[in-house]
Write a structure and sequence with these properties.
The two termini are about 25 Å apart. This protein has a 6-stranded mixed beta sheet with strand order 3-2-4-1-5-6. The radius of gyration is 17 Å and the shape is globular. The protein has about 220 residues and is α/β, with parallel strands linked by helices. It has a single domain (about 5-215), classed as 3-Layer(aba) Sandwich (Rossmann fold), CATH 3.40.50.1240. Helices cover about 40% and strands about 15% of the residues.
Length: about 220
């Protein structure tokens, strides 16, 4: 049995999705548009941060620079004292011309491309002016691997990011092609997922997914 690869220095990676925004509530794609949390979003991150601070009090926090993610990270930082590290590679997938639009509008204006995206058969296809799912998975996974290799030995890396970016990154980290494989559901607002190192292939495995503040099992899943 070989030693863990360098990017396994972290004992776990926790992916935490930002709280709700008005665009989330309206069903509009946000992408890299810089939208603030709404009142419900602030309530969500307050409850989630309490749970995460209890289970991961010394976690290194990295965050997207977009306001909804950065504010979410700050809620946890206020409780643990760990200052967030901003990395723009953790931004949401760029949806280009689709940003700000509802799925109904997108389906009407780009019927073929929307159908492929909605059915998961788009592979490396991109929204006009945006990124493919494969591209965002590789981008975010690269950032996470780098930060995981730099945290103190045995500590947790807590990544504050966005729904599509997190799903694509997890898919990439468990050895799948984010453009082709859609076996992971998205995260609800302010929910999180936990990955731990593996000595086998792939190098990371999922031990908890789409967990929220109401879940009593976060510590049990992580082993705390």
């Amino acid at each position: 049995m070989t030693d863990r690869p360098a990017d396994h220095r972290a004992s776990a990676i926790v992916f935490w999705r930002h709280g709700r925004t008005a665009w989330n509530a309206d069903g509009r794609l946000q992408g890299q548009s810089d939208i603030e949390l709404d009142e419900t979003g602030h309530q969500q991150i307050s409850a989630a941060a309490q749970a995460l601070a209890t289970t991961f009090p010394s976690a290194t926090i990295i965050t997207s620079d977009l306001k909804r993610a950065h504010r979410t990270a700050a809620e946890l930082s206020d409780l643990t004292g760990q200052q967030p590290i901003i990395d723009t590679r953790l931004r949401e997938r760029s949806f280009g011309e689709w940003e700000g639009l509802s799925r109904d509008v997108i389906a009407e204006r780009w019927p073929e491309l929307f159908a492929a995206w909605h059915s998961g058969t788009d592979a490396v296809a991109k929204p006009p002016g945006g990124e493919s799912r494969q591209e965002v998975g590789l981008r975010v996974a690269e950032a996470v691997r780098e930060h995981a290799a730099q945290v103190p030995e045995g500590e947790v890396l807590l990544v504050v990011s966005h729904g599509a970016a997190i799903t694509a990154a997890i898919t990439t980290l468990i050895g799948e092609d984010a453009g082709l494989w859609h076996g992971i559901t998205g995260l609800d607002n302010a929910n999180w997922s936990v990955l731990v190192p593996a000595r086998s292939t792939p190098n990371w495995r999922i031990v908890g997914h789409n967990m929220g503040a109401a879940a009593l099992s976060v510590g049990e899943v992580f082993g705390a």
